[in-house]
Amino acid sequence: MVEVTQASIERVPELASLFGRAFVDDPNALWSLGANTSEDQVIEWFRAFLALATPHGLVWETEHGLGAAIWFPPGDEQTYRDIEERVRGTIASLSDDGGVRNASYWDWIASHLPSEPHWFLDSLAVRKDQQGRGIGRALIDKGLSAAKREGTPAFLETARPENVPLYEHLGFRVTLEEDAPRSGPHVWFMRSDP
C-alpha cells in the first residue's frame, strides 16, 4: 500500500524538482513558458507555486518523494486564484513573452472550472522510474476519497492525450475538450462524480 502524507514546506525544493522533471515536456508548460523551455525553468515555476500552496496543506506526497499531487478542496477557489496570480511574476521572468501567454491560458482554464463546490487536481507527478506502481493512483485516490466523503465532484484538466485514458480508468470522464485560445494546446477537462 502506498502511503500519502501532507508535504511540509521543507519538501518544496525536492518536490519542485519532481514536478519540473515531470512537466518539462508538458504542453501546458511549453505553451506558458515558450518552445525552448528548460527543466530548470519548470522547476522554478513549481518552486514558486509549491512555496505558496504547501503552507495551505494543498500538497501531498508519497514516501521518499516518489510522487506528489496538488489538490485544492472545495472553498479554496480564491486560494487557487491568489496563488496562480502571485506566481505570474515568476513565470513572466521565465517565459519568452513576459508571461502574456501564461496569463491568458490560466485565465481561460479558470473560466472552465465548475461553479459548484469541487475538488480540483491541479498537478500530479510521479517519478518516471516509479510509474505503474500505484503511486499516481494513491495520490488521485486521496482527493477522490475526500470528494466522495463530502459528496462533491473532483475535476482536472490535462493537455496530454495519453493521460485521458489513465484518468478515465480512475473514474474521471471527459466533460469538454477544446483548443486553448491563441493557438494554445488542446485541453481535456475531466470530472469524477461522487
Q: Overview of this structure, please?
A:
- There is one protein chain.
- By secondary structure, this protein is α+β, with helices and mostly antiparallel strands.
- It has a single domain (4-151), classed as Aminopeptidase (3-Layer(aba) Sandwich).
- The protein has seven helices and seven strands; from the N terminus they run βαααββααβαβαββ.
- A seven-stranded mixed beta sheet has the order 1-2-3-4-5-7-6, sandwiched between helices.
- The radius of gyration is 15 Å and the shape is globular.
- The protein starts with a strand and ends with a strand.
- The mean pLDDT is 95.
Brief sketch in words of this structure:
The protein is α+β, with helices and mostly antiparallel strands and 194 residues long. Helices cover 45% and strands 21% of the residues. The chain has helices at residues 12-23, 27-33, 39-53, 77-94, 100-111, 135-150, 163-169; strands at residues 4-6, 59-62, 67-72, 119-126, 154-158, 173-179, 186-192.
Determine the structural class based on helices, strands and strand pairing.
alpha+beta
Sequence of strands across the biggest β-sheet: 1-2-3-4-5-7-6
As a whole number of angstroms, the C-alpha radius of gyration is 15 Å
Q: What is the residue-mean pLDDT, rounded to a whole number?
A: 95
Shape: globular
Q: Can you count the helices? A: 7
**DSSP strand (E) fraction?**
15-25%
- Tell me the CATH topology: Aminopeptidase
